[in-house]
Design goal:
Blueprint (H helix, E strand, L loop, with lengths): L5 E2 L5 E2 L2 H21 L2 E4 L10 E5 L6 H9 L5 E5 L6 H9 L2 E4 L6 H12 L3 E4 L20 H8 L3 E7 L10 E5 L15 H20 L3
Parallel strand pairs: 3-9, 4-7, 4-8, 5-6, 5-7
Antiparallel strand pairs: 1-2, 8-9
Helix pairs in contact: 1-2, 1-3, 5-6
Length: about 220
């Protein structure tokens, strides 16, 4: 796990005072934005994201998506995979670490990031990922290709894997209402307890894509 995340004797995350202040300010910002300026309606079982270990994944269109991700589970903290380029600036690195960012090299198989995610899930944390790996703004709002490694994390985690669709069009606009659709956990029981194969990972990826598309196409 990234060195900036100090751990207690029982593996719990210990946040420094500056990190707590940054998170409190982010909490206030997110609360105001998604309650007043862009009223957000959450459809589905939000409570399943607020307790116990869980891995939830969503579409990614805007730089504001991570704030919406935090909004779903606040006051609980959530850890989010973020591209390694964001960690090159020391000030920005400290800021996003305080908000639970985990560095991931999108162009390669980043085993360190995978280990960090699995470690957090084993400790009962919530982790959010954007499986497309980057912002995707297709005119028809269709999903981009899911990155390698996403299915492996879903399989190895052994925790609920929950699809979440951000229904906000191709951009956020002040005054525009947003819908967040939360689906049921994906059933991966057929792949547990045995050696995973390439075709199994492809099937898991297809299940994840299908679940997110079902939310995208739902009329709620």
């Amino acid at each position: 796990m990234d060195a900036e995340y100090r751990q207690g004797k029982n593996g719990e995350i210990i946040w420094t005072f500056p990190q707590k202040v940054i998170y409190a300010l982010a909490y206030a910002f997110v609360f105001v934005v998604f309650h007043i300026f862009m009223p957000t309606r959450v459809i589905g079982n939000r409570e399943q994201l607020k307790k116990g270990p869980c891995l939830y994944y969503s579409n990614h269109i805007s730089l504001l998506d991570p704030f919406l991700t935090h909004f779903l589970v606040m006051p609980r903290r959530v850890f989010i995979l973020a591209k390694t380029e964001l960690f090159k600036n020391r000030a920005l690195q400290y800021l996003i670490h305080a908000l639970g960012a985990i560095s991931v090299d999108r162009g390669n198989s980043d085993l360190g990031a995978m280990k960090a995610v699995l470690d957090l899930l084993n400790k009962g944390q919530a982790v959010s990922i954007y499986p497309e790996g980057t912002r995707v703004r297709n005119p028809d709002l269709s999903l981009g290709e899911f990155q390698q490694g996403v299915a492996m994390i879903a399989h190895r985690s052994g925790v609920p894997v929950i699809p979440v669709y951000f229904d906000h069009g191709n951009r956020y606009r002040i005054g525009k209402r947003i819908k967040v659709k939360i689906g049921d956990p994906i059933d991966l029981s057929a792949y547990q307890g045995r050696k995973i194969r390439r075709e199994d990972l492809e099937n898991i990826t297809n299940l994840m894509v299908s679940a997110l598309n079902d939310l995208r196409n739902s009329k709620d």
